[in-house]
Amino acid sequence: MLTCKEFLQEMTDFLDESVDGELKQKIQVHIAQCPNCFVILDTTKRTIQVYKGLEAQPIPADVHNRLMAALDRKLAAGAGGSSGAQA
Ligand SMILES: [Zn+2]
User: Rounded CA gap, 83 and 41, in Å?
Assistant: First the structure.
């Protein structure tokens, strides 16, 4: 069975689909038995998907407007208020 260290070394290749069938199977066996590595793989996979998603889809206009409005309020509230000591 693969160790966690070996799993982490092969993980990016696994996500790229650039590992051979035997290694792929070993990785799948490892994540089926090791919750830690399953979470790491799942998180990494989601992160990659988020990045790909951001490239494919620009922010919708209404989301952008709400974001800018929220920033405006934040800036307006901060400008005349305290000296910014929030630590
Ligand atoms: Zn592991």
Answer: 44
